[in-house]
Design a protein that fits this description.
Strand content: 15-25%
CATH architecture of the largest domain: Alpha-Beta Horseshoe
CATH class of the largest domain: Alpha Beta
Order of helices and strands: EHEEHHEEEEEEEEEEEEEEEE
Number of strands: 19
Helix content: under 10%
Radius of gyration: 29 Å
Distance between the termini: 86 Å
Largest sheet: 3 strands, parallel
Number of helices: 3
Structural class: mainly beta
Strand order of the largest sheet: 1-2-3
Number of domains: 3
CATH topology of the largest domain: Leucine-rich repeat, LRR (right-handed beta-alpha superhelix)
Length: 320
């Protein structure tokens, strides 16, 4: 005889109704079931199974977590969520309650004690994160964003100095200003292919960022986007980029492999300043301006491959 598993997810045990002319219901329902070996699985916040017939006769009752209740890794994050969004006041946050949230506001901003918020992925009613939403959460190490996001505000993770990696959901078109600025522990970022613009200082001073792959559709990179990313070793700039803005890669002291797009027209002031590991640079024929100090401090530069047909005037400080 094969064994069978009987599973119940009722929080309160159902009543076994008597039928006329038969033995009491609690004898009928599980007639000939070996209640000493059969395992009864119920939710951990259930009540009554230990006292209600015939349920109490089961000797092996296993309590499991309610699959609709979110289990938080960080108790402080849980307490904030309960205080703001526990609509049924049961002391827990359900997946349904999380999904009904449409605005985080600044509930977590500047909270230096929270460490993880992977459960943010259940907040599927969010379509955006407000400006500075998690800024200065200096001990935040991990956060999983919901797939429902279509935009994020500026400075969302600014100065989250312990954040190590982040995956942005598909559909985002812009990385706004200061999004990850001063995230000094950030090592990897997965940019979705939908990204078209990376704005001012978005990754400024991410000193542990060693690699980043920019989507082919990116057509604009703002000032100081990767300035101070001292561990970044290589970058391939998409062909749609026409201008490298002020200080785009300044202070990227480990940057040695740079692919400049063939359609580039302008390299602005300080663009590669103090990129001391660059050994070779190719200047495309479309280039018409190189700003002040663009390659100043590039002490390792050995080859300048210029494809410019008609050279134009540049200041003496460009390669100082």
């Amino acid at each position: 005889m094969s064994s069978r598993h009987y599973t119940s997810y009722a929080l309160t045990p159902p009543t076994c109704k008597d039928l006329p002319g038969y033995a009491p219901a609690f004898y009928q329902v599980f007639y000939q079931v070996d209640k000493s070996t059969c395992q009864l699985v119920v939710l951990e916040n259930s009540s009554g199974y230990m006292s209600e017939k015939p349920w109490w006769e089961f000797k092996k009752i296993v309590f499991i977590p309610d699959p609709n209740i979110i289990v938080f890794n960080d108790p402080l994050v849980k307490s904030i969520c309960i205080a703001k969004w526990d609509t049924n006041n049961d002391g827990e946050l359900s997946i349904d309650e999380a999904a009904s949230v449409t605005d985080l506001s600044l509930a977590f901003s500047k909270n230096s004690e929270i460490t993880s918020f992977d459960e943010l992925q259940y907040f599927t009613g969010l379509t955006t994160l407000e400006d500075w939403c998690f800024s200065y959460c200096s001990n935040l190490k991990s956060c999983i964003l919901p797939s429902s996001l279509t935009s994020i505000g500026k400075g969302v993770f600014d100065h989250c100095t312990n954040l190590k990696n982040i995956q942005l959901p598909d559909g985002l078109k812009t990385i706004p200003s200061y999004t990850f600025a001063h995230c000094s522990s950030l090592e990897t970022v997965n940019l979705p292919q939908s990204i078209e613009k990376i704005e001012l200082a978005a990754f400024n001073s991410c000193s542990e960022l060693n690699t980043i792959s920019m989507p082919l559709g990116v057509s604009a990179i703002g000032q100081s986007v990767f300035s101070g990313c001292s561990n970044l070793t290589s970058i391939e700039i998409p062909d749609n980029i026409k201008t490298l803005e002020f200080a785009t890669f300044s202070g990227c002291t480990s940057l040695s492999d740079v692919k400049i797009p063939q359609n580039l027209e302008t390299i602005d002031d300080d663009a590669f300043r103090d990129c001391s590991s660059i050994e070779e640079i190719i200047l495309p024929c479309t280039l018409s301006r190189i700003g002040n100090y663009a390659f100043s401090g590039c002490s390792g530069l050995k080859i300048i491959n210029s494809q410019i047909v008609e050279p134009f005037a540049i200041n003496n400080n460009v390669f100082s």
